[in-house]
């Protein structure tokens, strides 16, 4: 409980007591030293001399606390760690004695001699052997001995085995020993005691990255743990199962995982669904299998699927060109059954909007094509618009889908009617869309087919999914300076995510017959703005407009005032230095509003 | 190291609390309330470990009392179960077939025993005999008291 000041003051006393002959005091002193070191790590050095003979103790109490002290010192200081490595043989000997010694009533727990001490020694060995070949080799035998000889019928034995396994996995052990460790964990998984199973799953999760193949051998046991009653075990098993999925076992594993998804608690469903999507994306054996898996997840756990999965799925579907007809058909059928699961409904309405023509023309190759008319499809989509179950986002999806069908279906009038109704919708988003679509019908009908045509295959790197019909406002470029053959144009972009920053790129061209060298562009802005000038592409503006020097300026305009700038240009032209100042006031309003 | 140990009944009454980290009273109360709620909500078939904040919680029920320890990430959960069991054995040996009432009426003895067994969140004595011997000696000291002055 002592504070760091108290620790500083009393450290000397503690150190003295460490050397006292009374073992009762010594063990307490050792733990006090641990506390002092925790609070004030700099005092560690002070206890170093006292530790010299710690391990030659006979008294288990003192021995135990000494090992704790040594562990604490080694954990905190790499120098101490190196210093204490030489104790490994001694520790190995002590551990050996504990295992080999006969029954000692004083320290016995269910037939095992002082398990607390054994566990602490194993832990210290772990720290000493990590990243050190020699130490690891020195402890190889004893670890193998403990691993094979410890009684596993009681929790005590398993506690020691657990610590042993952790140590084996952390040090530079030989592969035979590692396999032994993983097999112990595999045996743990079959243990009736759920605590042991939990501990095994946790450890396997830590080792699956490094010893993947060894853990794979226990895959079926791990998958069985998915059916365990305990929530913590189920979660661990699920995480481990996803880690073990690979190209070879994907079909079998996915079956088990989908079954798990069906029956698991709601708290798991989101993680499980995301995991399934990820695994399917990496290892799907065929596009059809992939689509089927996605469908299964959407229909069984549709409402738990994360929102960001919807754009990802849409992108996936877009890229599987040959499956479009099959996908839209399956999604349509799913919609007929159930419109309550929003992610499913959103993906489905998007697909129907894109591929509705395939749906109506009955082109599906993968399965029996269904007969559906344009009116039936529009009924379903309109149903989504009016249903109480649909969220505003879903409604947006379905309105856009209906609009897209205007270029794919022939019943344009019906679509026109629907769109115009929503022009007065209370929902602002829907209203905006409907008004824009209305405008498309009326004034821009010639653009409609082009705007609403099929989405091209998207690049994976696109962070947003498919863009709906988007109006891009290009900010017009302007000429800032044009004198003596030097012309400087400004082009603009808005910097994401901060809309107060205008990114201006200057383009300098030279129409004279001689090049301009040592070209330097400088700019100054009024006090309410902030300016950042990045490096130019070059200092030489080639003659006769043969090249451009570009440079990026970032202007922070938090008060959204009219942008003004004073620029200074210096360059050498035909041997003489030229300098000019100019004001730039003709910025277009969109660049600073 | 163990950060704290709590003993509470099935109704959520705290019988013993030992903290090995400095925390304000308010924080202690908050942690206690939260943990008691979480542990009592667990079904009997569930495993004895759970993750809570950045600690591991190891708990075991003995008759009407829950023994709940919070250990750090690198600590061995299974050996912590053994530590809990060892403490129960010590209480049992001292009180002779211990029950919750013994702990309620002799809580200061329960704390003494705990303090002889654990110090600073770590076990200080792994021999049952030695712990009990130390308690015996402490008891003897208590009994040798100066006689009250007679009027």
From TrEMBL, chain A:
GO terms for cellular component: cytoplasmic vesicle membrane; Golgi apparatus; membrane coat. Residues 473-588 form the GAE domain. It is found in: Cytoplasmic vesicle membrane; Endomembrane system; Golgi apparatus. Its main location: membrane. InterPro entries: Adaptor_Complx_Large_Subunit, ARM-like, ARM-type_fold, Clathrin/coatomer_adapt-like_N, Clathrin_a/b/g-adaptin_app_Ig, Clathrin_app_Ig-like_sf, GAE_dom. Pfam families: Adaptin_N (PF01602), Alpha_adaptinC2 (PF02883). Keywords: Cytoplasmic vesicle, Golgi apparatus, Membrane, Protein transport, Transport. GO terms for biological process: intracellular protein transport; vesicle-mediated transport. SUPFAM superfamilies: ARM repeat (SSF48371), Clathrin adaptor appendage domain (SSF49348). It is a peripheral membrane protein. The keyword Protein transport applies. The keyword Transport applies. PANTHER family: ADAPTIN, ALPHA/GAMMA/EPSILON (PTHR22780). Belongs to the adaptor complexes large subunit family. This is Adaptor related protein complex 1 subunit gamma 1. It comes from Cyprinodon variegatus (Sheepshead minnow).
From TrEMBL, chain B:
CDD domains: AP1_sigma. The keyword Metal-binding does not apply. Pfam families: Clat_adaptor_s. GO terms for biological process: intracellular protein transport. Gene3D superfamilies: 3.30.450.60. Residues 1-141 form the AP complex mu/sigma subunit domain. Belongs to the adaptor complexes small subunit family. Subunit of clathrin-associated adaptor protein complex 1 that plays a role in protein sorting in the late-Golgi/trans-Golgi network (TGN) and/or endosomes. The AP complexes mediate both the recruitment of clathrin to membranes and the recognition of sorting signals within the cytosolic tails of transmembrane cargo molecules. Adaptor protein complex 1 (AP-1) is a heterotetramer composed of two large adaptins (gamma-type subunit AP1G1 and beta-type subunit AP1B1), a medium adaptin (mu-type subunit AP1M1 or AP1M2) and a small adaptin (sigma-type subunit AP1S1 or AP1S2 or AP1S3). Binds to MUC1. This is AP complex subunit sigma. It comes from Cyprinodon variegatus (Sheepshead minnow).
């Amino acid at each position: 409980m002592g504070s760091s000041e108290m620790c500083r003051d009393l450290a000397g006393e503690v150190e003295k007591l460490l050397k006292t002959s009374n073992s009762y005091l010594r063990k307490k002193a050792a733990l006090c030293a641990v506390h002092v070191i925790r609070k004030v790590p700099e005092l560690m050095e002070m206890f170093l001399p006292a530790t010299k003979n710690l391990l030659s103790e006979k008294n288990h109490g003192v021995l135990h606390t000494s090992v704790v002290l040594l562990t604490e010192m080694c954990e905190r200081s790499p120098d101490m760690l190196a210093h204490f490595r030489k104790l490994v043989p001694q520790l190995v000997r002590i551990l050996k004695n504990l295992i080999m010694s006969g029954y000692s009533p004083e320290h016995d727990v269910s037939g095992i001699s002082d398990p607390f001490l054994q566990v602490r020694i194993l832990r210290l060995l772990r720290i000493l052997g990590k990243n050190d070949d020699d130490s690891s080799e020195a402890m190889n035998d004893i670890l193998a001995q403990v691993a094979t000889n410890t009684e596993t019928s009681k929790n005590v034995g398993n506690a020691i085995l657990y610590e042993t396994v952790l140590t084996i996995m952390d040090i530079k052990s030989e592969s035979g020993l590692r396999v032994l460790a993983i097999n112990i964990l595999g045996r743990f998984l079959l243990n009736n005691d759920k605590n042991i199973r939990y501990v095994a799953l946790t450890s396997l999760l830590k080792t699956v990255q490094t010893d993947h193949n060894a853990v794979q051998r226990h895959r079926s046991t791990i998958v069985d743990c998915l059916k365990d009653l305990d929530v913590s075990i189920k979660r661990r098993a699920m995480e481990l199962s996803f880690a073990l999925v690979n190209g070879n076992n994907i079909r079998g594993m996915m079956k088990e995982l989908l079954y798990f998804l069906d029956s698991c608690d709601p708290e798991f469903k989101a993680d499980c669904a995301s995991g399934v999507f990820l695994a399917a994306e990496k290892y799907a054996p065929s596009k059809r299998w992939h689509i089927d898996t996605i469908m299964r997840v959407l229909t069984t756990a549709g409402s738990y699927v994360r929102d960001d999965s919807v754009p990802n799925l849409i992108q996936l579907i877009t890229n599987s060109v040959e499956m479009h007809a099959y996908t839209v058909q399956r999604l349509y059928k799913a919609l007929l059954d159930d419109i309550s699961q929003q992610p499913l409904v959103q993906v489905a309405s998007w697909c129907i909007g894109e591929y509705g023509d395939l749906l109506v023309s009955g082109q599906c190759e993968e399965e029996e094509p269904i007969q559906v008319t344009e009116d039936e499809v529009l009924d379903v989509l309109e149903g989504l618009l009016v249903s109480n179950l649909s969220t505003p986002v879903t409604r947006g999806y379905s309105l856009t889908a209906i609009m897209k069908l205007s270029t794919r279906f022939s019943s344009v009038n019906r679509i026109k009617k629907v769109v115009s109704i929503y022009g007065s919708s209370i929902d602002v988003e829907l209203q905006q869309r409907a008004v824009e679509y209305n405008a498309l019908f009326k004034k821009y009908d010639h653009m409609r087919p082009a705007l609403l045509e099929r989405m091209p295959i998207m690049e994976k790197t696109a962070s947003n999914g498919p863009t709906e019909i988007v109006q891009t406002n290009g900010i017009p470029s302007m000429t800032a300076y044009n004198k003596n053959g030097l012309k400087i144009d400004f082009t603009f972009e808005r910097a994401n995510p901060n809309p107060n920053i205008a990114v201006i790129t200057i383009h300098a061209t030279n129409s004279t017959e001689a090049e301009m060298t040592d070209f330097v562009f400088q700019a100054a802005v009024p006090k309410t703005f902030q300016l950042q000038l990045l490096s130019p592409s070059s200092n030489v503006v080639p003659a006769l407009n043969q090249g451009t020097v570009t440079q990026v300026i970032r202007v922070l305009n938090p008060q959204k005032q009219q942008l003004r700038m004073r620029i200074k240009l210096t360059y050498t032209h035909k041997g003489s230095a030229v300098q000019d100042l100019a004001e730039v006031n003709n910025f277009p309003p969109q660049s600073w509003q | 190291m163990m950060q704290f140990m709590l003993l509470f009944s099935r109704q959520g009454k705290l019988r013993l609390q030992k903290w090995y980290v400095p925390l304000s009273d308010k924080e202690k109360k908050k942690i206690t309330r939260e943990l008691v709620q979480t542990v009592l909500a667990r079904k009997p078939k569930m495993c004895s470990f759970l993750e809570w904040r950045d600690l591991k919680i190891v708990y075991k029920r003995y008759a009407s009392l829950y023994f709940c320890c919070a250990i750090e990430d690198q600590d061995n959960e299974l050996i912590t179960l053994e530590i809990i069991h060892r403490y129960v054995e010590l209480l049992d040996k001292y009180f002779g077939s211990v029950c919750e009432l013994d702990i309620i009426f002799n809580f200061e003895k329960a704390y003494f025993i705990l303090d002889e067994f654990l110090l600073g969140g770590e076990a200080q004595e792994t021999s049952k005999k030695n712990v009990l011997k130390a308690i015996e000696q402490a008891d003897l000291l208590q009994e040798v008291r100066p006689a009250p002055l007679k009027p």
